[in-house]
User: What shape does this take?
Amino acid sequence: MRPTLLNPLFAPITSLPGIGPRLAPLYQRLTGDKIADLIWHRPSGIVDRRFCPDIAQAPAGRVATLVVRIDGHLPSGSSKKPYRVRCSDDSGSMHLVFFHGREDWLRRQLPEGEWRVVSGIVEHFNGDIQITHPDHIVALAEKETIMRVEPVYPLTAGLTAKMVAKTVRAALERVPDLPEWQDPAWKQRQNWPDWKSALLALHQPNSEAAVADGGEIRRRLAYDELLANQLALAMVRAHMRKIKGRSLVASGRLRDRVLAALPYRLTGAQNRSLAEIDTDLAAPFRMLRLLQGDVGSGKTIVALFAMLTAIEAGTQAALLAPTEILARQHFATIAPLAESAGIRVALLSGRDKGKPREALLTALASGEIDLLIGTHALIQNDVIFRDLALAVIDEQHRFGVQQRLDLAAKGNGTDVLVMTATPIPRTLLLTAYGDMDASRLDEKPPGRQPIDTRILPSSRIEEIVSGLSRALQRQTRIYWVCPLVEESETSDLAAAEERHRHLSAIFGHRVGLVHGRMKSADKDKVMAAFAAGDLDILVATTVIEVGVDVPDATIMVIEHAERFGLAQLHQLRGRVGRGQKASSCLLLYDPPLSETAKARLEIMRATEDGFRIAEEDLRLRGGGEILGTRQSGLPELVVADLALHGDLLAVARDDSRLILDRDPELSSARGQALRTLLYLFQRDAAIRTLRSG
Ligand code: ADP
Ligand code: MG
Assistant: This one.
């Protein structure tokens, strides 16, 4: 249970004054739906309002706070002209300027003959000094409240700077004092403030430099987050290791049969990874291993070979895929190979119901099925194995730690192999999969044609479209990915629909559309039509399933490529270049491109090595944005930025191990505080691995 102390932070933002049904969705888009999400919304800049000159000395272009007497109102008389208010001090006079100003409101704010404190950007206009739409107008008594450094927050459409600043302030008022979870000696050596003081200070940067990296204050908070992350992973690892594993050994009889049926030989990287997996399987503790390999690097066969060892050792294996279509694809690949090895394979998805499902479950429980392939339907309670010894989870990033635990819990000391096609830089590997050992498939199967990647401005779309007509005469298939519009899913969709109409008008019925709003059965139907060749062009938002194999597709067009994470571009590009024919990838962008954006797209042109792309992306963009964490499903870091705080990661890992060595159940006073930390960063799944939950 979450400590009650944290409840105020997990209250919905609608519990804050002024956040009703109209504003809540805007804040939700900007930060999240809980107060905790607001407290991590860091300022992106500052406005320094401490400069308080006389009117005559106020320099143009600078933010200033001025104390002025209101001399008179000059209503505009025409909607084209602004409303002006004349003011003065002993040094001179100036105007406050309002476009579309409402007279009654302005007269109330700025009564003639009285003094006011106003703050905004000073302008010199036709020999006159003025401020257009002052940011603040207050009475003399409130001068101190505005004469300070103001944090400026990132915004979203519909929310003003003032609103967001006020809401964050209100959220910060709800922040409780929390027990200290850092080691006192370490904290003192680092000269770190308490958590709450650090958090409040984070929202009061006093210089642009403090905004950029936050210094010690942000380091403390970043370390908190990295510690929560590493501790949670260490707990999951400890939990998995505590349950005794089993030694799975096989002579390789089944493997040999499949090898004989394979039209190719394994690559060096496949053999190396298999050797690492075999060592784990044979060892008497549980395997928790990540198999990393680019799209097309041949993970499936490695997984199958690992499962064959488990099956030959007299147990069962399961392969969990993130989507129906991928589960079916795995089944289609594996079933014929399994047949040559004489083992029994079945497919289970959410669509299986009634009698057939019951029959399947009975066969599974009695051990008549050796290998079960499926979607998360595998995790349902009534899916019972006779003896599940190896669980393989494909495309891990769609699943969470909890599902990993749930699937493993279906067996007794079940070994777990997680496969991911997301190339993850080494530093990030620790934050995402710190509970696992890792193997890399860093070598592609031979005979792959390089993909010809080009970077083009979107103004050349018509040219590209006529190029596609020519390409289609050569029997190819084309993916066309539409822009990721951050603002909303609806506009995402609108862009894709628009492109679909445009291309349909040219190419007729053989153009399909898939997007995230479609029911998965409908999505599968369109994908299947594309795979079967009933459609030539597939227009898609970014939902094109990772891992779906259409070897005949040779052209990938990506609009607004500059908006994608490099890892995502890499994944998308990996949809082509899978067959014998030469493939190409067209990355379209909207000029002008920033230097960084240009450099990023250039990397895509220069290499197809996913690991190199990921490392370069991390270098160029910093850890916060790497991989488009949101899409990849990797745990998002809210305060820590690996580009700034990467050095703290290793410390956090060592710290976590030490903590669990000394206090494995987190029962000491510091242990209790650390539990609070885990809840604060929503690493709850880890806490459930503790006996005393
Ligand atoms: P991944 O799941 O890593 O994206 P797959 O396992 O789907 O990749 O393999 C991609 C393709 O490469 C498949 O068609 C597979 O048959 C083929 N393949 C796998 N290993 C080899 C190899 N050693 N030599 C040649 N082709 C291979
Ligand atoms: Mg795969």
Q: What stands out?
A: Residues 623-633 have pLDDT under 50 and may be disordered. The chain has four domains: 50-147, 177-227+656-693, 253-441, 451-627. The pocket of adenosine-5'-diphosphate (ligand 1) is lined by residues 264, 266-267, 270, 293, 295-301, 421, 445, 547 (CB under 6 Å).
